[in-house]
Amino acid sequence: MAKQKTKNKKNGATENVNVGAILLKKWWITALVIIFILGGIILLYIFLPAVANKSESRQLIKIPANATTEMVRDSLAKYYGDKYAEKVVLVSKLRNTDYSRRHGAYMVDSGLSPLKTERLLSSGAQHPVVLVINNARGVDILSQKLSKNLDFTADSLIAQLREPEILAPYDLNSDQALALFIDDSYQVYWNASPKTVVEKIGANYKKIWNQERLNKAKALGLTPAEVITLASIVDEETNKADEKPMVARLYLNRIKKGMKLQADPTVKFALGDFSLKRIRGEHLKVDSPYNTYQVAGLPPGPIRTVTVNDIDAVLNSPAHDYIYMCAKDDFSGYHNFAKDYNTHMQNARKYQKALNRRGIV
Question: Is the Cα dihedral 278, 281, 283, 284 positive or negative?
Fold first, then answer.
């Protein structure tokens, strides 16, 4: 009987242990489920806004060199508000993103979640910036315009264009640097260096100056830079595309005869005032290598950027004997051409009288 009781006690103890283990296991399962649910709620609270919120517009976000997360947050908040920006920052912190290594410009499209925006900004996949070069009168003006769209100063680009080794591949000197920048649209990255931009634009310059154009320039006795310099004067003289080849050949005739160009646009450039509507005697006295009333031949470099069509207007200018021209008195924008001085003076007096009648000083 004693042995049976002992055995029953042992069985009871074993059953109690088994029941306790089952209860403990169920408790742990319940605790894990609760933890899982709470974790899911927390994750949902954190990540749902990061997935559900959407950017409301398409914006180019610029991340400067050595940027901090706070700087990126401010850039985003400017366009999308603080809440959206903070969600992006939260994702970046969870992903341990280092924005100091993401210098560049990134296009955030409309409808992107904070999660996708953060992935875009941390990817390094930049969006190119389009540089439009059009009718820039001088390197300083051009550099100011380009620097507004890129992450460098105008002075840094100007400094590059004064370096002989930068311009040497294009057979240009610092006075001719503007010739490199043919009117066109160019794609570069916002964080591109001045040297990179020059090389990008220089590649187009070399493409334009193919062997056919080089041969035509040589036949005229001009270098590519000189062709562009003449084209820049022609482009300032007339905005009539059909007249540009005529004007170009007139100046070539004057160069051939050893005559001064006496081009009014070069005087305006020398004075730094293209608003002048009437060039007077005092204007012609300006002391400048660009004043073609005082200096023989072409000026040191272009007075503005030109198009490929302007270049071709010089290269393909038709032969004629005109050496004088004067704006027509009907203000049509066209010119009267003359082979002799007396005829030219008759045309000039007509134009001067028309200016007087209109009160143009």
Answer: positive
Q: pLDDT, tens digit, for every residue of 308-324?
A: 999 999 999 999 999 99
Residue 310's φ and ψ, nearest 5 degrees, are -65, -40
For the chain, where are the E strands, in sequence order?
A: 59-63, 104-108, 129-133, 184-188, 324-327, 335-338
Return the DSSP state at 258. T
Q: What is the pTM of this model?
A: 0.81
Helix/strand/coil for 113: coil
The H-assigned helical ranges of 170-220 are 194-208, 211-219
Residue 290 burial (10 A CB sphere; 0-12, 13-18, 19+): buried
What token pair was written down for 359?
């009160």
Look over the chain and give the mean of its residue pLDDT values, rounded to a whole number.
88
Instruction: Please give the Cα distance from 227 to 298 (Å, whole number).
Output: 10
Instruction: Write the single-letter amino acid at 144.
Output: Q
Place of tokens 């508000």: 81
**Chain-centre distance for alpha carbon 184:** 11
The Cα 176–Cα 82 span in angstroms is 49
CA separation for the pair 29, 82 (Å, rounded): 41
Distance CA 236, CA 279 (A): 14
What pLDDT score does 48 carry?
47
Size of the chain, expressed as the number of residues it contains: 361
Residues 6+ apart with CB under 8 A from 173: 164, 167
Residue 342 sits at φ, ψ, to 5 deg, of -60, -45
Which CA distances in Å does 302 have to 138, 175, 203, 270?
A: 8, 8, 19, 12
Are the C-beta atoms of residues 297 and 308 closer than 8 Å to each other? no
> ∠ CA(332), CA(333), CA(339), 5° rounding?
105
Please report which residue ranges of 57-106 form alpha helices under DSSP H: 69-80, 82-94
Report the candidate in 276, 269, 273 with the shortest Cα–Cα distance to residue 178: 269
Q: CA-to-CA distance for 142 and 145, rounded, in angstroms?
A: 5
